[in-house]
């Protein structure tokens, strides 16, 4: 089957990932994900792969394959992975976890390339459009800007003490 022009993928606590034809609403592929619930999905910029964030790992699936097996696994988190996303060229991926870390993964090499300690469960991470900063929000209400060039936290904000940051977006 040829890839639809719009890829819609869903997942949840039912341990499945489903691919849908957006126009017709027909589910054309289901992948069983028995290891855990799926907390977050993200499609690579080239629409070739789907990252599924679970507990405590990320699995990368080929969007065009019929195989239910992941093409790659990323396993160095120790708790629920709550955020996942890709750099604009799809060369690397970032993730955030309830283990209190933000990680960067080179998609061309195995293993975690960088790790940042948030000191609280990370709920959300976004990549700034400049592609050189990650912004994370955590359970304790902290927002941190991670400067990828300096390899450190460049800014910390606490909009409301002890109020979890669940979602962020940047433009």
UniProtKB/TrEMBL annotation:
Pfam families in the cross-refs: WD40
GO terms classed as biological process: regulation of actin cytoskeleton organization; TOR signaling
Domain of life: Eukaryota
WD repeats: 1-30, 74-108, 115-156
Family annotation (PROSITE patterns): WD_REPEATS_1 (PS00678), WD_REPEATS_2 (PS50082), WD_REPEATS_REGION (PS50294)
Cellular-component GO terms for this entry: endosome; TORC1 complex; TORC2 complex
Keywords: Endosome, Repeat, Stress response, WD repeat
The keyword Repeat is assigned to this record: yes
Main location (coarse class): other
Compartment list: Endosome
Family stated for the protein in its record: Belongs to the WD repeat LST8 family.
Function field: Component of TORC1 complex, which is an essential cell growth regulator that controls plant development. Acts by activating transcription, protein synthesis and ribosome biogenesis, and inhibiting mRNA degradation and autophagy.
Subunit field text: The target of rapamycin complex 1 (TORC1) is composed of at least RAPTOR, LST8 and TOR.
Name under which the protein is recorded: Target of rapamycin complex subunit LST8
Species name: Dahlia pinnata (Pinnate dahlia)
């Amino acid at each position: 089957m040829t890839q639809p022009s719009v890829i819609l993928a869903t997942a949840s606590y039912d341990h499945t990932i489903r691919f849908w034809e957006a126009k017709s609403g027909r589910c054309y592929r289901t992948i069983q994900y028995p290891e855990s619930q799926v907390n977050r999905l993200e499609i690579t910029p080239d629409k070739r792969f789907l990252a599924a964030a679970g507990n405590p790992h990320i699995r990368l699936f080929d969007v065009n394959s019929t195989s239910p097996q992941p093409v790659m696994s990323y396993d160095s988190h120790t708790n629920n992975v709550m955020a996942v996303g890709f750099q604009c060229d799809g060369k690397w991926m970032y993730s955030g976890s309830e283990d209190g870390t933000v990680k960067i993964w080179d998609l061309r090499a195995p293993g975690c390339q960088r790790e940042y300690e948030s000191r609280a469960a990370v709920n959300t991470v976004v990549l700034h459009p400049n592609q050189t900063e990650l912004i994370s929000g955590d359970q304790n209400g902290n927002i941190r800007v991670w400067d990828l060039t300096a390899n450190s936290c460049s800014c910390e904000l606490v909009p409301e003490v002890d109020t979890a940051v669940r979602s962020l977006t940047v433009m």
